[in-house]
Specification:
There is one protein chain. 18% of the residues lie in helices and 25% in strands. The chain is built from 13 helices and 37 strands. Helix 2 packs across helix 4 (112-131), helix 4 (112-131) packs antiparallel against helix 7 and helix 4 (112-131) packs antiparallel against helix 10. The two termini are 53 Å apart.
């Protein structure tokens, strides 16, 4: 059923133009929308009054995450979402088919074969949820859509992570009385066994035309808790199967796998078991959705209310990313550089395309492209690259064939979070995520063929894996580098996607072979509510661990440690004005670090001094994050295309340029501390003057001390690095800000 838009409904959500209303409830409204390409979607959003409540916002974000977990086979595929907008919204596929309750009301109870097929499919859907530590908590006929391909589970508005009771304690509803488990009715923990109880109630409704515990009145909760279900009208062959699901003790109920095997029916697609009236309704809906004409009701007489528009056009980087892999040599570099420039953006505004204004567009020689989940990543994402595998995504990782882009892992691999996953190019490792507050931090290997997570081989009992700031930063052949935290989630908190001041954090070196902790370096504490992770990225070169560290306020610094001992060798603050996604990306070779500082420069890996920087940029030019290949440093120059530079080629002559349509690959002159071009040298602590001349030697900083302090006030963002005679074991206090 489609309803007209009201006068104060938004014109669009994200890129989706709203066409009609599908329904409205206590939390929000569901719309029918259409993308610029013509794709139809269902868009769910929150009422303004509920969007102002942190508890309801947390529920909406959990619903978004659960919808992604269940995926498009057992649920409505998620197209897009913005759970942190002023008015949060979620765009999913528009499911063609009626809800189960409407199908039964209009066409009567389903035959046993259809109910068995329905139950087996729903068992698989719940297994997918439970395998990701999520329980639905409100499985009922109206939340199950009947399609020709099979049932789809929707509406995860009160879903939560297993063991997490915080949202229930806020006073929100716990489910629907007619389909609640006894433990849920008593306010106790709702485990996967509670979803099995609700599923049995759904199947009774489907085959008998009514629920097993009344019509859903509050008084029916006593029936759920103390009495046996009414199985009148249930086929005799299904009675013993479903009765076991209604056990009052959760541990006595079958698992989803056991129940699914008992419900399995004869071969044949799901639609083969559906009665004609249901198939006719599916066909009618498939046609009707394309015949909806947009209609908006006028405002009431005398109304002065302004239109409610969600926050769908914030400046800055989009949270949606299309991963693109290019082939060839020069064209591959150009494509990767252009992608880096898209991340770079403009200071103080949204990213804008640059380059030629001619009609001919550059050809990037794309081999393949896939859509990956990069919404609101905790750290700037980067794919994991192995010999025969590339892993992409920030959540719900995808294992792909790097040559063809075809999936090598199943649709729902066990490894899920990118910020908990790292590779040494031969093996993938992951920190085993858990929502249980007391579970220790453990690390497992990931099967490269299936994406399955193996048994833990590292266990750190004094670190809590459920804490928000946990990270797996980097992997070498012998060592993993991670961030671990100690301390609890405060019991009174509803939203846990942030740091708490009671927690303490450390950078860890972990031995892959023995499973032991090699070293631990304390990290600055985070204030309550901070959401910035301690590190944006990590690299290893020789004996050096190179980190981009960020403070709670978003200030960044480059930190280099001895990777074997954890001793801090040097650190530099840098505030280039670029977004996190740009500052996180740096390049490292055997002798230098090439940071994303908005300009081209190289720092000595040994002590952080500036080895060279390119001083002949056009006025105001900015550069993308660099990359290093075969001795050349590549970057994208704003308005100039791709540039390639090499310190070995530094001379007092001008740049050597090879022009290409709409892009430029050049070898530039570099001012080098080791070259003979002394006229272009300047003290490493001094910012350039407007004429590009060096500042007086008196402006150089004092010699390094044994304490790791932030650069003096007013110094260059690349002030002289501290290089203590005795390496420190702690990070500077500047990172606590």
């Amino acid at each position: 059923m489609f309803f007209p838009l009201t006068h104060d409904d938004p014109e669009q959500l994200g890129t989706y133009r709203l066409v009609a209303r599908l329904g409205s409830g206590g939390m929000g409204t569901v719309y029918l929308g259409q993308s610029p390409s013509g794709r139809i979607a269902a868009l769910k959003t929150m009422h303004a009054r509920t969007a102002a409540d942190p508890a309801f916002r947390a529920r909406f974000r959990l619903e978004t995450d659960a919808s992604r977990v269940i995926g498009g086979h057992h649920g409505a595929r998620v197209f897009d979402a913005d759970p942190i907008a002023e008015i949060p919204w979620l765009a999913t596929e528009y499911v063609i088919g009626p809800p189960l309750d409407e199908a039964v009301q209009s066409g009567g109870p389903l035959p046993e074969t259809a109910v068995r097929a329905l139950g087996a499919s729903l068992c698989a859907a719940l297994a997918q949820l439970h395998g990701s530590d999520v329980v639905h908590r409100d499985l009922k006929p109206s939340n199950i859509m009947i399609t020709a391909d099979g049932p789809k589970v929707i509406d995860f508005g009160i879903a939560r992570a297993i063991g997490d009771e915080r949202l229930t304690r806020t006073g929100t509803e716990a489910g629907t009385p007619a389909f609640m488990s006894p433990e849920q009715a008593m306010g106790q923990d709702h485990s996967p066994a509670g979803d099995v109880f609700a599923l049995a109630g759904v199947l009774v409704y489907a085959v008998a035309g009514r629920g097993p515990f009344g019509a859903g009145q509050a008084a029916d909760l006593l029936w759920v808790r103390y009495a046996e279900p009414d199985l009148t009208g249930v086929p005799a062959s299904l009675v013993p199967v479903l009765r076991r699901c209604f056990e009052k003790v959760p541990e006595r109920r079958p698992t989803t796998a056991q129940l699914g095997s008992e419900l399995a029916c004869a071969d044949g697609g799901f639609s083969a078991h559906l009665p004609e009236p249901v198939l006719a309704e599916i066909a009618r809906r498939a046609t009707a959705v394309w015949q909806v004409e947009p209609c908006r009701l006028p405002p009431p007489a005398g109304s002065v209310l302004s239109e409610t528009v969600p926050d769908s056009a914030r400046p800055g980087m989009s949270r949606r990313t299309l991963l693109t892999v290019a082939g060839g040599s020069a064209s591959s570099i150009a494509a990767s550089g252009a992608g880096a420039w898209a991340w770079l953006g403009r200071r103080g505004g949204a990213a804008e395309p640059t380059g030629s204004t001619g009609s001919q567009q550059p050809k990037w020689d794309l081999i393949w492209q896939v859509t990956a989940s990069y919404e609101d990543p905790r750290v700037p994402p980067a794919p994991l690259l192995l010999d025969q595998l590339i892993v992409v995504g920030a959540y719900g990782l995808q294992g792909l064939n790097p040559k063809t882009g075809k999936a090598r892992w199943p649709e729902y691999p066990e490894v899920y979070f990118a910020h908990l996953t790292a590779t040494n190019s031969r093996q993938i490792y992951t920190i085993n995520h858990s929502s249980e507050e007391k579970d220790p931090l453990t690390v497992s290997r990931v099967d490269l063929t299936t994406g399955a997570v193996g048994d833990p081989f590292i266990e750190l009992k004094d670190f809590r894996v459920a804490l928000y700031g946990t990270q797996l930063l980097y992997a070498t052949d012998d060592t993993l580098y991670a961030v671990g935290g100690r301390g609890p989630h405060p019991a009174s908190s509803v939203e846990t996607d942030h740091f708490f001041k009671e927690q303490s954090w450390s950078l860890l070196g972990l031995d892959i072979h023995s499973g032991s902790k090699l070293w631990e370096v304390p990290l600055p504490p985070r204030p309550d509510g901070s959401t910035r992770m301690h590190f944006l990225s990590a690299r290893v070169s020789g004996d050096h661990l190179v980190l981009v560290q960020q403070s709670a306020k978003g200030e960044t610094q480059l930190v280099v440690l001895n990777r074997h001992t954890g001793a801090v060798l040097w650190q530099r603050k840098f505030d280039s004005g670029q977004p996190d996604a740009s500052r996180a990306h740096l390049a490292v070779d055997d002798t230098h670090v090439y940071p994303s500082a908005g300009r081209l420069l190289a720092l000595a890996l040994s002590d952080g001094t500036v080895s060279w920087r390119y001083d002949q940029s056009p006025a105001g030019a900015a550069y993308s994050p660099p990359t290093v290949k075969d001795g050349l440093v590549y970057a994208v120059e704003e308005g100039g295309g791709v540039v390639a530079s090499t310190p070995e080629a530094a001379s007092c002559g001008g740049p050597r340029t090879s022009a290409a349509p709409h892009r430029r690959i050049s070898t530039h002159h570099l001012s080098s501390a080791s070259s003979t071009c002394t006229a272009s040298r300047r003290p490493v602590s001094s910012p350039p003057t407007s004429e590009g001349a060096p500042l007086p030697a008196s402006s150089r900083p004092p010699r390094p001390s044994t304490s790791l302090m932030s650069p003096p006030a007013g110094s260059s963002p690349w002030a002289r690095a501290t290089s203590p005679a005795t390496p420190s074991s702690e990070f500077t206090e500047a990172a606590q800000a």
